[in-house]
Amino acid sequence: MRITALVIRILRQIVRDKRTMGLLIFAPILVLTMLHLVFNGNDYTPKIGFVHIPEPIVDQIDVSDAKITEYKNEKEAKEDLSSQEIDGYLVFNNQSPAIFLEGSDPTVNGAAIKWIQTALKPLQGNDTALEPKVNFLHGSAEMGQFDYFGPVLLGFFVFFFVFLIAGVSFLRERTTGTLERLLSTPLRKWEIVTGYVLGFGIFTMIQATIIAAYAIYVLDMLMEGAFLYVLLIILLLSFTALTLGILLSSFANNELQMIQFIPIVVVPQIFFSGLFNLETISEWLSWIGPFTPLYYAADALRDVMVRGYGWDEIYRDVFVLLGFSILFMIINILALKKYRKI
Amino acid sequence: METTKACVSIRHVSKQFGKQQVLKEISLEIMEGEIFGLLGPSGAGKTTLVKQLAGLDTPTSGENFLLQEKMPSLKLIEKVGYMAQSDALYGELSAKENLQFFSALYGLKGKQQQQRIEEVMKLVHLSDHLHKLVSNYSGGMKRRLSLAIALLHEPEILILDEPTVGIDPVLRKSIWEAFNELKNKGTTLIVTTHVMDEAEKCDRLGMIRDGRLIAVGTPEELKQKTNSATIEAAFLVYGGA
Which residues of chain B lie closer than 8 angstroms to A183, CB-CB? Predict the structure, then answer.
């Protein structure tokens, strides 16, 4: 009953504040669209070097859609590769082809490998030995691309906006004195926290559905698994964002100080979310990952969206996220003791 | 006083924030059905004291009893109406939505809720502005809406922290009429103020300065004892000026 009152009030406030509602729904859509356009723009034309490739083979290769440079020996090609004159080069060692890639830009890697593989197809015919071996100068195997980091970004934007808005709205509750007013009523402390989680939870459900549906069906983000799992993960992630936002708002005195938490609490989570290769993070920093909610959400979202996995693969992440939310909720209830002892 | 039953009993209450002592050994009895004024300059500790009575704070030492029960207690909180110094209202919502929200917290619903909302808004002369957004309210209107919210659940004890700040004299008069009406119904009112002429309207007064209760009595008694013509002069005598 009292929780219902709180939930209705929160929903009314959100609906009244059109701009904030717009921020929650359209800002992620706008950013995702822009990323989609940036990363899935025109196909990149790879710059490929041929190192001492026999004339008959070159004749068979379709050299359109790529800029070809021919080299007399591998040393020259390597120099051009280092100075990024070419993206990669093809060389035949003992009749088997090998690709050497510059490797720092995943989009470029993908394009170069794809082109070489297509180009070598007519040669392959019945000879499987012609399957090229891929080597990198920098970086590692294929990473990035909208499909691959899309799920992470989806989770991140929901986390970011819910964190900020829930934190600010609870902060306002405190600074305008309405929190004190609430605590002078018979409302229990756990009811306040639960009311907030449910009120924002309902709204986040709508927000997550719209954003995820837009990303998957309009932007054509890769989606191998079940939509409901995506929603479940995003909802649980937003619960952690919500409860963490409320918790941190008690350490902020105004909206600006709430925004100061973004570079400290929100942005670093990106680094451990798998947007960058986790194995390449230096060891003295990588232990942070398992303490950030986005780490689990991104893993689960990727399992569902990219790998098409189901419950068996994501349940651990789901329970960790749930654990984070419950932990933050309990700390919140304890923190409210500062304002009323009982 | 016709009634002699103590409704609020403050016993040897002291409060410390870090090194700063805000309340020093306050003992005070407030009777049922009276309007008790807490008079003192800002920073004297009035708000700290009434917050404790509303269950929002606890004393460092000493005890507060309301209706013979020790504060803080969730059961007691339902019997207390509290109006804070700041207007704790949701600006994005209309007055009615604010009232609906707070009345639901006290378990009022349906017809009863609607009826109470109409009654309290009439009492503070805001019936015509029920559907307006609170962000469009003037300062005085917000003050009155805060008062209306504190009255919603018909509390036995009403604690009002500076209820008439920023309200013009005509309205102030009508608000005091409402206070007297509530008092006649048996409600106990505790009002803090730093306005001396407002203090005259209380049944009894407690004068607070630097966290100490320096005098208690009816306005007449306080003036007679100090041979002063005004409450302000009496305050100066008790304050040691």
Answer: 55-56
Integer CA distances (angstroms), A174 to A137, A169, B85, B93, in order: 55, 9, 14, 17
From chain A, the residues in CB contact with B102 under 8 A are 181, 185
Domain residue limits at A161: 144-338
Query: DSSP states of A31-81 as a string?
Result: HHHHHHHHHTSSPP--EEEEES--HHHHHHS--TTSEEEEESSHHHHHHHH
- Given a contact cutoff of 8 angstroms between Cβ atoms, the answer to whether B72 and B127 are in contact is no
pLDDT of residue B1: 43
Nearest to B7 by CA among B146, B158, B122: B158
A174 interfaces chain B, CB cutoff of 8 Å: no
Residues A119 and A99 in one domain: yes
| pLDDT, mean over chain B | 89
* Residue B170 located in a structural domain: no
Contact A340 B97 (CB under 8 A): no
Chain A hits for B84, CB-CB cut-off 8 Å, are 177, 180-181, 184
Q: State the smallest CA–CA distance between residue B171 and chain A in angstroms.
A: 24
Domain boundary (A136, A168, A191) is at A136
Final residue belonging to a domain, choices A82, A101, A136 = A136
Tokens linked to B144: 């009155």
Mutate to test the interface with B, among A3, A20, A178, A185 (most CBs of B within 10 A): A185
B41, B64 in Cβ contact below 8 A?
no
> Both A118 and A266 in a single domain?
no
- For the stretch A267-286, pLDDT in tens is 888 877 877 666 566 677 77
Residues A79 and A98 placed together within one structural domain of the fold: yes
Q: Please state the domain count of chain A.
A: 2
